[in-house]
Amino acid sequence: MRIGDLATKAQVSVRALRYYEEQGLLASTRSESGQRLYRDSAVGRVRLIQQLYGAGLSSKTIAELLPCVDAKVSTPESRKLLVAERDRIDTQIAELTLARDRLNDIIDATSRPNPQCDYV
């Protein structure tokens, strides 16, 4: 499929797909006229890349992990990297949960009339 078709199916921009190729995360072949062509499996690959980016992984880290994903094999190094990323995400979740709880406390506190505050 052509780059525009992949972008539509994977719900990403053409620019993102070109960037993924530059970073070595996605591969294409070229038609005789020079257009990029992708396999149907590229849709799933792009969605995986998007999920990993969404989780905060860098393109370098994703590039290190994708060969293991492709081979369906992990190494001690890849498992260590995955565990470190999972732990980083867990820390972010805990921090975000704390921030949300604090916001909820502020919302609750400011939802009640307070005669000492004119702005609420």
From TrEMBL:
<protein>
    <submittedName>
        <fullName>MerR family transcriptional regulator</fullName>
    </submittedName>
</protein>
<feature type="domain" description="HTH merR-type">
    <location>
        <begin position="1"/>
        <end position="68"/>
    </location>
</feature>
<dbReference type="InterPro" id="IPR047057">
    <property type="entry name" value="MerR_fam"/>
</dbReference>
<dbReference type="Pfam" id="PF13411">
    <property type="entry name" value="MerR_1"/>
</dbReference>
<dbReference type="InterPro" id="IPR009061">
    <property type="entry name" value="DNA-bd_dom_put_sf"/>
</dbReference>
<dbReference type="InterPro" id="IPR000551">
    <property type="entry name" value="MerR-type_HTH_dom"/>
</dbReference>
<keyword id="KW-0238">DNA-binding</keyword>
